[in-house]
Protein 1
Amino acid sequence: MKDEGFVDDGFIEETAWEYVGRYGSASVSVLRRLAEAAARGGDKLSAQTWRAIAEAAERILALGVGK
């Protein structure tokens, strides 16, 4: 993730794993909805962070985890 704030990559990966564990294959759509809600609320950093977490969840799911 391009660093425009103070969110580290470890947090993103850990959060992605949590969402995959909780929501399985639906996690990416849940995370993208969170990103859109943040964007609609004008919180660009949160929206960017949720998108990065969604991308990490996609990578995790591509490994066959949480399907």
Protein 2
Amino acid sequence: MARPLALDDDRLFPVEPSVRALARELYGEVASLPIISPHGHTDPRWFATDAPFDNAADLLVAPDHYLLRMLYSKGVPLEALRTPDRNGDVHVEPRKAWRTFAAHAHLFRGTPSAIWLDYVFAKVFGIKVRLEAETADHYFDVIGAALATPAFRPRALFDRFGIEVLATTEGPLDSLEHHQTIRDSGWGGRVVTAYRPDAVIDPEHDGFAEGLRRFAEITDCDVYDWDGYLQAHRQRRRAFQALGATSTDHGHPTAATADLPPHEVRALFAKVASGHVGPAEAELFRAQMLTEMARMSQDDGMVMQIHPGVHRSHNPRVFERFGRDKGADIPVAVEYVRALKPLLDRFGDAPGFTLIVFTLDETTYARELAPLAGHYPALKLGPPWWFNDSPEGMRRFREQTTETAGFYNTVGFNDDTRAFLSIPARHDLARRVDCGFLARLVAEHRLPLDEAREVAVDLAYRLAKKAYKLDRAA
């Protein structure tokens, strides 16, 4: 007999009754606020074409690296989950892939993925039984029938989820045609892009040489000359801003920054452009480019984000067969105080410049990042990210940063997801955890209730909108 799926109204709130009551009251202030999603990786094609999603497996499993990594760790081949290989080929039918996923749904017990999925199943699709092998076909059919209706097209779901603005992430080689289509369509949903130039900044990127060639074609700049290379970035940034971009994003291996003298930069870039650099020179060039991107951000007003500290594609066999972003990315330790100093020496006090820093290394929260954000006007702390985007990760973040950086040197929440249907689930989780944290401060008489109400709204809505400059006209 199928077991019921039910979401408790008090989920994720503190256990102690009086504190839980406070959390419930605070959550009531934010539960229905619009969603600001200022950084993510959803596909702009969805909103440009507004075509129906195909099926449960391709929508919910195949693109979700959180799910892929857990299933792979337990011996499930990625081919069995309809993960496209490097040629774009898939190897099983959607229903079979979904059955494989359902048979392993128990693996996600206790993980944030289970919280997000149960929200999607219950709130978005109205399913009332738990996902397991016996209910796999029921799920596949219910979801498939829903996806065939106009109410489940991308734009309708965008509106239903209460999304006020959603940012995708594209690179400088992207044509941005889907964003242009969205803008020309007359649809009222606000979908903007963000500039992620890693492919033409990182000499160790597997497509760097071809990327530079295409960068030259797209911009008609001499990108093999230092001045022309910088001009090409400025040109693409302007194109991104014309389609709503308010931010850049940089996924470098470390947080290293540099501020080299002009003659040293030119000599370094000549080596980079020629394709003859070693690991140390590649790292130095990435470090210099973060400072150059900060300089451009001061000029054009785009908010700058740094997402460092990931050993990407750690499993070479998965990378060779399936490419990037398939669950084989592993966090590494990151140092920030010395790494960011060259950039902060130049721009840490610069009016109008905002640098949002993320980490996967929680040991840096209290020791490095909160003190840095608690001093430099330009520096803000991004929310718990990736492996830390979880109830316990969010609590640890608040506990380790609030006493030094306060709430107002953070930027609220961003979901940073490819999984479109999980966006309301992720924001709901963050709002509940933050309200629980605030409720504890109120119960301990460390924060008046009226101020806690204001902070709850700031964390859920106002801080992200302000930090990413999304409060300006579209």
Protein 3
Amino acid sequence: MSDAAHDYHSGDQDISEQVATFSVFGKMMKWGSLIIASMLLLLVIWFCVGAGFFAGLIPAVILLAVGIFFLRSPPEAAH
């Protein structure tokens, strides 16, 4: 029983799967939040303000385009 506690060595584990999962989760949250914000803007202007579908679609598309511009990943540096 005591020997099992000594088999653990801090920092020796392979964490590549955890790093990949965290990266995918972060990307899903980033892009998912942008899509939800665009849809929310469209629906609020369309139904709550009563300005119509196209009056809501135009700001939603603009928000989506600006969000894609600012949230995209920087290009990988060439070695």
Protein 4
Amino acid sequence: MSEANDQVSGTSKKVSRRKFILGVIAGGAVVSAASYRFLSPGSHHRLSSMDAGERLITLNVNGKPRRVDVMKQETLAFTLRYKLGLTATKIGCDRAECGACTVLLDDIPHYSCSVLTHTVRGRAVTTVEGLAAADGKLHPVQQAVIDKQGFQCAFCMSGFLMAAVGFLKQNPNPTRAELAHGVSGNLCRCQDYNKILDSMMHASELMKSDSTRRS
């Protein structure tokens, strides 16, 4: 029995939390896809009248086309996390209040929990996973968080990053007060706003440095 327990324990240690979550997501995507195709024995006539193209759509996510089945009432946050496996997009309040689910749509920050997935066809969706360069170099906003250790629990971090990226694209030289206003749609449970603003102000400096080097 002891040997069997050791083998089970050793196996569990090899399974990371992230791999477990992604496995659950993969299983959930299959169940979700099946659940709205086969609702009940009497639903076949109703479903057959629906155009399959309305469910299977192509999204431009982080610069790549992604084919995914979606329901008409499905939110972008749900699609990103549970069907495309982009778990950096967090679902906090799920009612457009906390900002944890913020993503960029055509470089403009939006609460993805309040955007229906089928409405973003033809638009560029960017999540935290799409910020780093192809060679792995972090985006200045990501690097700034590392440099300044701007978050505690970091549940809200991805939303703040996306809000800051969107704001700094439009306002590359903000004052601290302007930046605070620019990301004010995001809430931090740890209330570590000073460190967050320190990081985001540092990010604006890194972005200007990158721009100067390129020019």
